[in-house]
Every structure is written in structure tokens, then in C-alpha cells.
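Something for you to look into today, if you have time. I want to see for myself how the chain folds. Leave the record below and I will have a look.
***
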Amino acid sequence: MSLSTHLPVIDLDIFLAGPRDSPVVLQECKKAAEALIVYGALVLHDSRVSEQDNSTFLDLLEDYFSQPEADLKKDERPELSYQVGVTLENTEKPKCAVDEPCLRIIERLEISERPLDISAHQPDPKCRFFWKMSEKPPYETQFPGLNSPNVIPQADHLKERWPQTMQNWGNFMKNAVADLADMVAIGLGLPAESFRDAGRYGPHILAPTASDLAKYGEKDTILAGFHSDLNFLTIHGHSRYPGLNIWARNTGKRIPVKIPQGNNLLVQAGKQLEHITGGLIKAGFHEVVVNEQTLAVIEQRKVHFPNRPLIRISSTFFWHLSSDYDLVPITALAQRSQAFKGDGEEETVYPPMKVGEQVSK
């Protein structure tokens, strides 16, 4: 399959303008579904999202992660498996470093297209903050640990602006990705709100990551090792520093991600979407590294913003299906998946399970 190195751009404005049964809307929905089938990722244009809001969010997170480690540790919640609050650097490990199926995917890639070597990679030198954006279910969930209350940093220069900024940016991302879920459902031939309903009470998380480039700014440093996401759809705003690479259909070319300037977001497929489509859409693999472009932006930021910390923030949002939802492949989509199976691609079994079980595993 010949693939472009540019991700398809899906226009959410067309969908929101409606009506949903118009040919132009249906065409854009099919384009969205096809983009995820082929690339596992797409660029989403949404005029409701402003660069200023993204910038305000990035400033807040840079200020937060530039605090001393002792202050950051106050926001750790290891007893809740780090599902809220901060996760400090060298805690998260790329599963692919020890996962045989994942390592075989890397082996099938041409040497020039492989990720940076994670075989001896230590835990990722990135920090993360989990801010829940979920709606409390009207029933007793079997997975209360995935629905814990949020942590608010207590530093004076943060606590007043923290909840509003996090909620504001989180809602932009949540609304955009839920609307895209409707588009993808329609594009796959399903009722429009199939995925939205399945994820109505999901433990959605605004999960910005932070990498200290003053400390980890050498070329070819792995900030986030080769991996895929376990949720349904992941959405990102612009980062100030390049370095994200994705792989098309897990066995294709490495694509350095460039989100076009303007009201654009990056969306990637996760394991829950792969599971429910029976592998028709694959969770896309990706990594974050320090490359030549990252180094160039570091030097530019030193000149133009000398008083700002050199911290790479990724404004990531994980959209999940509801924890108690029965995760079962949709038969018609699982049957279609056979036509997209790549050469040498292993047969994957998607056993029925609750979404909360899948997350816990």
C-alpha cells in the first residue's frame, strides 16, 4: 500500500454544519473512518479550538512542571495507580521494550523506518499529569479506581488558574473527539452515536506530558518509547516542540507529525477502537524523541522566550469507552478487517471483556 507522509485532514466544521445525511457530510465521515483504517491517525480541523487557549494551557503546564520535585511529589497518588495527579519522570515504561508481538512489529519494519532502539530503554524520562474529565455514571461502577477525584496543585501561582484552565482546554478536546467519534461511526456504517453512547461515562483523562529539555535535550533521547495507547481515541493540541513520530498501519512508514497551524488537532486510534472494530482500525504506534527539529526549536525558544522553562508539553487527551461497557468486536467490522491485514501481520484475538478489565490489564 502506497502511503502519503501527510496525514489526512478531516474537517469537523463540515460535520457540525450538517445535516448528517447530506452527501458532503457522509463523504467527510467516510474519509475520517478511512484515515483511521489506513493511518491509525488523522488531523482534525475544528474552528471551536483556538491557539490562544492551547497556549494558555501550555504556559500553565510549563509553570507547573518547573516546580521543585518535592512540590510535584505532593500531587502523586501511587495508591491509585497514578490514575489522578502527577506521575514523575522515570516511572512509566514503554511496554514494547518487553512485549514480544510489539518487538516483532519493529522487526518487520525496514531498518530506516524503525523507532529509536528501546530494547535497553529505561523508563521514560517524561512526567505526566492526569486530570479526569469524566461524567459520574448513574449506576454503581465495577471499577471505582478508574473514577477517582482530581488533584489540584496547591502552589499559590497555580491553584487559582488550574481548575478553570484544565477544564476549559479539556472540554475543547473532549467535545472535538466525541464529535469525531460520531463521524467515524457514520463512516463505518454504524448509527451515529454508537461510540459516543459507549463512552458517555468513560474515565476520560486530560493527560499532558512534560519532558525537561534542559535535562533531556540531547539528540536521539527517547522521551516516550515506541508504544500504542490503550484507550479509544487520543487527541492532542499543538506542542511547542516537534519530536512525535507515528507509524501508518503499524507496519508502514515512520511519519514525523506536523499539525498544520490554525484550528487543528491530532487524533490517534487506541486499543479500545481496535478491539471494537476487530482490528479493522489498528491502534497506531508512536514515539516522542529529540531530533534535529526539536533542537532547532530549543535554540529559538532560548532566544525569543529566555525566561520560559525549556519543557516540552504534549496536550494529550485520552477518550475512553465506559468502564462497565462490554468490549466485543462488531462482527461486520471484524469481517472487513481481513482485507486490511498486512503481510506477515499476526492474527490478533479480541476476547469479550469489560472495558475496565482491558484498562486494568
